[in-house]
Amino acid sequence: MALPSSHDVALAAERRSAARLLLRHPLVTADGPHADAFPLVRRHADWLAQRFQQVLGYRLLVEATYARLFKAGLGPGSGHRMERSTGTPFTPRTYAYLALALSVLVTAPEQVLLSQLVADVRAAAVDAGLSIEDSGRPVEKRTLAAALRRLVDWGALTETDGSVGSVAAEAGGEALLTVNREIARSIVAGPLTQSTDGADLVLRSADPGFGGPRTYVRRRLVETPVVYLDELTEAERDWLRTRQRREAEAFSELLGLEAEIRAEGVAMIDPDDELTDLRLPGTGTVAQAALLLVDRLVRRLRPDEAGHPAVGGRLTIGVPIPPGLVAELLDELVEEYGRRANWQRGYLDSPALLRADALELLSRMRLVAPAGPLRADGHGVPPWYERAAGDGRAVTDVSAARTAVVGEWVLLAAAARYATTVSLKHADQRAAQPDRQGEPSS
């Protein structure tokens, strides 16, 4: 077999870089933070559009000044939250301001004063039947400013004179803004006109269309840290198990991802660690506490006889975390490490806050999850979507793979990757080194 030429290798590398950029940043502008890579997207626009449509069912729009990849959702409970530059997550009110501002911008003049934009947003809220307080409270102003700042980051607004941040000024500042209506119109990706309310929009946005299980599973593989089998319908599990090796090769070629295939599910690993906005291990109090917490949870709760049913094991995707155990372990960690590691005073004074934020991070990493109905049981599946595998084929039974009472937390299989131990080197006795152990059985 002939080896690929240097031209072919370079071409594949360029296309892979462009595809990875669009997955990480679905809106790329010619003068935005990724302007250097925008010509690369333009150069391979046709190939990228074809591949994204074929593989993930995503539409790619490439114009002279921007490129927009219209990604789909994954259904209830699977969204990626937006955050301010400080890392503070958007509140429902921030999302409401963002949606209202977008509704104004799609028909706004090319230039608008900040005060006029704010007035139009309040008018749009009235039209939508939403209650927007005009109390002048600083927190309300900062919330509005955060939503407008996101529109500036996306390129839908340009600060021609002044800053959108002046809306939060005590005296009420002014600014001249330039509106890019094309970008504003391209931001919303879901089927708004077909949806009856927010919940229906989330459900319809996740519909993979004619691609069915194939498209949904592929989207889940690239958009989430881990795909567990019980988070898939019977038809999706059947498709994944029969195609997982070929899919691993395809994702390696398209995006440079490496597949980790185990009995409990599949994870796509990015060797360059670029395609994720989550880091664990990480810096900061929450990341440190979460890493130590998950290690101790695994040591306490590791199930016996877990493994692959085909070789005599018992498929275990999640085990219940007893009520009170997380608080108990975090109290121990604060006592052992909190002051020595200079954890933030706010977390040391508020165990409940530390518990909530640590669980939130572990949940986003798919290492723990609140107990509740699953997609394998039909939760979040549109009524028109085919759930059963065809031809009566036998599919992995996941009915007892995750047991817990609704309202409790569940420790998930991938958490075992973060259970560390200390081993002593006998050769020179230089130091004790951390090691990984306890991988989920395959």
Q: Could you outline the blueprint of secondary structure elements for this entry?
A:
Elements: H1 6-24, E1 27-29, H2 38-43, H3 45-56, E2 59-62, E3 66-70, H4 92-105, E4 111-113, H5 114-127, H6 138-154, E5 157-161, E6 176-179, H7 181-187, H8 198-205, H9 212-223, E7 227-228, H10 234-255, E8 258-262, E9 265-269, H11 285-301, E10 318-321, H12 325-338, H13 345-349, H14 351-364, E11 368-370, E12 409-412, E13 420-424, E14 432-436
Antiparallel strand pairs: 1-3, 2-3, 4-6, 5-6, 7-9, 8-9, 10-12, 11-12, 13-14
What does this structure look like?
With 442 residues, the protein is α+β, with helices and mostly antiparallel strands. Helices cover 41% and strands 13% of the residues. It has a 3-stranded antiparallel sheet with strand order 1-3-2, sandwiched between helices. Helix 4 crosses helix 6.
What spatial order of strands do you see in the largest sheet?
A: 1-3-2
| Number of contiguous helices | 14
**What does the largest sheet look like?**
3 strands, antiparallel
N-to-C terminal Cα separation, in Å? Answer: 33 Å
How big is the Rg?
Answer: 24 Å
In short:
The chain has 442 residues and is of the alpha+beta class. It is built from 14 helices and 14 strands.
Annotation keywords:
442 residues; alpha+beta; three-stranded antiparallel sheet; 14 helices; globular
